[in-house]
Amino acid sequence: MNFIKSFFISVFVLCGIILTFGSCSAKKNCTPEFVKDMNLAWSDEFDGESDAPDPSNWAYKEGANGWGNGELQNYTSSRENSYVSKGTLKITAKKGEFQKWTSARLVTQGKQAFTYGYLEFKAKVPLQKGCWPCIWMLPENNAYGIWPRSGEIDIMESSMNVWQDKVYGTAHCYAGYGGNPVKSTGVTVKKLNKRWHVYAINWTPEGITWYIDGKVISEYRNPHNDEDGWMAWPFDQNFHIIMNVAMGGTLGGDIDPKIKECTMEVDYVRLYQ
Hints:
The relative contact order is 0.28. The chain is mainly beta. The chain has a single domain, classed as Sandwich (Jelly Rolls), CATH 2.60.120.200. The protein has helices spanning 9-12, 160-163, 249-252, and strands at 15-17, 40-44, 59-60, 73-75, 82-85, 88-95, 101-103, 105-107, 113-114, 117-124, 131-139, 152-158, 166-172, 183-188, 197-204, 207-212, 215-221, 239-247, 261-272. The two termini are 25 Å apart.
């Protein structure tokens, strides 16, 4: 979910893979076997007594400036747009007076940032037309300059208008951004909005591997050459997590006038190192 993403990425440059995924219930382990040898470094299980997301983990990016993509929502810190209940986090975009949308964009910036690890989210993703949910990462500090120079990692991104029931994992950097990312792969996932699915990356000095429900869907390798350098691999710095539901814009597309709200539900976030 970058700041100048082109609508045409879905047509010209993204690679769609014909795979389907079932679901990850409490009884089904969708974490890869190698993670057993790692340590749980940080997590948020959204099991607290408060209905507010844990302030030691999450802050808010607020505002209604379109975020470089022509988005229509105003991001708030209101419990109407983000709250914890029954062991899960809900991020909800809502239509208010005069057809104005509000939503939430939660970030761990300044609170939780890291370099490398296996990062996993269990979530249900909305499918209404016009909704643009995303779980992604940006650098904590722009060591190589402003976007896209310092990179972006999209762990899960969805748009019913553009991709239907596919979700995408993407890497952006100076060598490939906007409508031409260095890596972007989409897969079909069954009942995104009704079943739990696990979206994850394994990020190491050698590359970034994307997983859905424990299965590899894509990989971007560190080229390890002086010619490309940071332009192809800015992913050696601390990054923080972002979770949001945007409405409309270049990738969200036209919003179905019949919908009044759009919710992404997250069961947990876990980082292993």
